[in-house]
Specification:
The complex is a heterodimer of chains A (382) and B (146). Chain A is 35% helix and 18% strand. Chain A has a ten-stranded mixed sheet with strand order 3-2-4-7-1-8-12-11-9-10, with helices on both faces. Chain A starts with a strand and ends with a strand. The relative contact order of chain A is 0.20. With 146 residues, chain B is mainly β. Chain B is built from one helix and nine strands; from the N terminus they run H-E-E-E-E-E-E-E-E-E. In chain B, strand 1 and strand 2 form a beta hairpin. The chains are: A alpha/beta (382), B mainly beta (146). Chains A and B meet through helix 4, helix 5 and strand 5 of A and strand 5, strand 6 and strand 7 of B.
Chain lengths: 382, 146
C-alpha cells in the first residue's frame, strides 16, 4: 500500500439549511479544490456518502459542477458513517495505486426532508425499529446502564455538552455554540430519560469534502508539511442476539485497535479526537472504548479536565456533534476536514496547541444484535 | 415501485408477529425462539438460515422462550415515530431472558416505575398504530403479577 496524504479539505457551516444536499456538497467540493490548489480535472475519482437523500447522490453533486462524464463517481452508504466511508474509499483507491488523486465527499440535508420532531430510527424491517427503538431511545438505554454501573449523574453528563459548546465558541462552522449551563441543559425538553434535548445532537444539514493524493502529487504541489493519513480503518459491527455490555462498544474498540495497529501507535500518542458524540453519554463511553482510560473512567477524565485543552487528549475541539448537529452522510467527512485544519494550525480561537496526531471516529447504523452497523476511524498526522 | 393506491387496499397488520409471538387461548403468551437443529444455538427473532457462519443450516425448530426476564436497562421515551405518538411517553427496555437472548421491548406500566435488574414478565398489548389507524398488538413486558 502506498502512502496517502490529504491535500485539500472543504466544509460548509452546519445548521438547518435551506440549500439541499447537492448544493452543500458542491460548496464543500469547490472549497476543497481551491484549498488543494489543483484543477478539477486532476481528481481521478469521487466517492460520495449520503444517508437519506436518495439515489445517485454523487452524480447530483458533480453534474452541476460539470464533472460528470470526466471521472467515476461511487456512491457509498453506511448511515451515519457514510462521509467517513467516502474518505476511506478514496484513500483505498490512492493507497492501492489505482488513482493519484481522489475525493471523498459527505453531504446531507435532513431538515428539508424530515418531518419535524420525528426521531431517526432503524429501518422498519428491523425488529427493534418496528417496536419504537428510535436511536435516542437506544442511547438512553446505554446511558441508564452506564449511570447504574458507575454512579454517574445527569449533571455529569451535561458537562460534556458544556465542554463541547465551549470548544465551538469561535468555530464559524459549528451550529450551537458558546456558553450554556448545566441547569439549562437539564431543564431543556426531556427526550428519553435521562437525555434532554441539549444532550442530543441536532438533525442538521451540511457537507464536507476531503481530497487525498499520493506522495508524488504532494511533491509536485510543493506541500512542505502535508497531512498524512496514517490509519483509515473500517469495520462492521459484531452480531449476537445475546446480552452485550452496552456501556462498552465492541465495534469502536475493534475499529480503533485496527487503526492504532495501522498507524503503529497507541492512544497515548493521540493529541485530539473528533468522536461520534451524538449524545453526551457517547463521548464518555467511546473515550473508554478507544483506550484513553480504563472502563468506567471516562467520567474521571472529564471531571479532571483531561478531555479539554491542556488535558491529556482534547475531545471534540470543533465542538463535536453536540455543537455541529449530525447530518448523517456529512459528519464523517467534516470531522476529517476539521482535523486537517487543526493539524495545519488553522483553527484560530479553537486551536489545539501543538496538535500533531488527530483521530476521528464515526459509527453508522442501528441493527438489532449489533451496537452499530459500521465504524470508520481515521488517524491523521503532520 | 408498487402503486400506493393498490397497497392501501390491503389491510395492514394488527398482530406483530405470528412467527415471534404465540398467544394460546388457555395459557399465557410466549415468545418463540428458533433453535438450530445442527448447531443448537437459539435465536430470536426468526433467522433462516442459522446466522452461525460455520453452520448456515436451514433446519430450525421453534422453542418457547422463558416468560420472565431481567431488565438490563430501561428508559422513558418521550418522542417517537409518528405512528407511536399516541402511546408516548412509554418505558422501553432491554430484557435479558435465561436462554441467552436479549429482547428490546416496550414495557406496560407507569413510566418511571421500572429499574435495572428488575424481573419482568411477558404480556401483550398495542405497540403502535398501523396504516389503517388500528392498533398493532405485540409482545411487551410488565411487572411480575403476584
Amino acid at each position: 500500500m502506498r502512502e496517502v496524504y490529504i491535500i485539500g479539505v472543504g466544509e460548509t457551516p452546519f445548521g438547518m439549511l435551506k440549500d439541499d444536499f447537492h448544493i452543500l456538497g458542491q460548496r464543500a467540493v469547490r472549497v476543497a479544490v481551491k484549498d488543494a490548489g489543483i484543477k478539477w480535472n486532476e481528481i481521478d475519482s469521487a466517492f460520495v456518502g449520503n444517508g437519506t437523500n436518495g439515489i445517485v447522490t454523487g452524480q447530483r453533486i458533480f453534474r452541476d459542477l460539470g464533472m460528470c462524464g470526466k471521472l467515476p463517481i461511487i456512491n457509498v452508504e453506511s448511515a451515519c458513517s457514510a462521509g467517513a466511508l467516502a474518505v476511506h474509499s478514496a484513500y483505498i483507491r490512492v493507497a492501492t495505486g489505482l488513482d493519484e488523486t481522489s475525493i471523498g465527499v459527505g453531504a446531507e440535508n435532513a431538515s428539508l426532508h424530515r418531518e419535524p420532531g420525528s426521531a431517526p430510527s432503524p429501518d422498519m424491517t428491523d425488529i427493534e425499529g418496528f417496536l419504537g427503538a428510535v436511536m435516542v431511545a437506544k442511547y438512553a438505554l446505554r446511558t441508564q446502564r452506564y449511570m447504574y454501573e458507575t454512579g454517574a449523574t445527569a449533571e455529569d453528563l451535561a458537562q460534556v455538552t458544556v465542554k463541547n459548546r465551549r470548544h465551538a465558541k469561535n468555530n464559524p462552522f459549528a451550529w450551537r455554540k458558546g456558553d450554556i449551563t448545566v441547569e439549562e441543559i437539564l431543564n431543556s425538553r426531556l427526550i428519553a430519560t435521562p437525555l434532554t434535548l441539549e444532550q442530543c445532537c441536532g438533525m442538521t444539514d451540511g457537507a464536507g469534502a476531503v481530497i487525498v493524493a499520493s506522495k508524488e502529487v504532494v511533491k509536485r504541489l510543493g506541500i512542505s508539511k502535508p497531512v498524512k493519513i496514517i490509519a483509515s480503518a473500517l469495520v462492521s459491527g459484531p452480531f449476537s442476539v445475546g446480552p452485550k455490555d452496552e456501556t462498552g462498544d465492541d465495534i469502536i474498540t475493534m475499529g480503533t485497535q485496527k487503526a492504532y495497529e495501522q498507524a503503529g501507535l497507541g492512544p497515548e500518542d493521540i493529541d485530539m479526537v473528533e468522536c461520534h458524540d451524538a449524545f453526551t453519554i457517547t463521548e464518555l463511553m467511546y473515550c473508554e472504548a478507544m483506550g484513553f482510560c480504563g472502563k468506567g473512567e471516562g467520567l474521571k477524565m472529564l471531571r479532571d479536565g483531561d478531555l479539554t485543552h491542556g488535558g491529556k487528549v482534547v475531545f471534540s475541539p470543533r465542538g463535536g456533534m453536540l455543537s455541529y448537529g449530525h447530518p448523517m452522510g456529512a459528519s464523517g467527512a467534516a470531522q476529517i476536514a476539521q482535523n486537517v485544519k487543526q493539524l495545519r494550525g488553522q483553527c484560530k480561537g479553537y486551536q489545539v496547541e501543538g496538535a500533531k496526531v488527530a483521530l476521528s471516529q464515526v459509527t453508522g447504523g442501528g441493527l438489532q444484535g449489533t451496537q452499530h452497523a459500521a465504524c470508520t476511524t481515521h488517524i491523521l498526522a503532520i | 415501485m408498487a402503486n400506493p393506491k393498490n397497497k392501501t387496499k390491503e389491510e395492514d397488520i394488527t398482530f406483530f408477529h405470528p412467527d415471534l409471538l404465540e398467544v394460546p387461548e388457555d395459557s399465557p403468551p410466549y415468545l418463540k425462539g428458533y433453535k438450530c437443529k445442527k448447531c443448537g444455538k437459539i435465536w430470536f427473532p426468526k433467522f433462516v438460515p442459522c446466522p452461525n457462519p460455520d453452520c448456515w443450516s436451514e433446519e430450525m425448530e421453534i422453542v418457547p422462550l422463558s416468560r420472565k426476564g431481567k431488565i438490563y436497562s430501561v428508559t422513558d421515551v418521550f418522542i417517537g415515530q409518528p405512528t407511536m405518538r399516541e402511546y408516548m411517553p412509554m418505558s422501553m427496555a432491554y430484557v435479558d431472558l435465561p436462554e441467552d437472548i436479549r429482547v428490546f421491548a416496550q414495557l406496560e406500566g407507569e413510566i418511571g416505575s421500572f429499574r435495572c435488574g428488575e424481573e419482568v414478565e411477558l404480556t401483550t398489548g398495542a405497540v403502535r398504530t398501523n396504516r389503517d389507524g388500528k392498533p398493532i398488538t405485540s409482545y411487551k413486558f410488565r411487572k411480575v403479577q403476584q
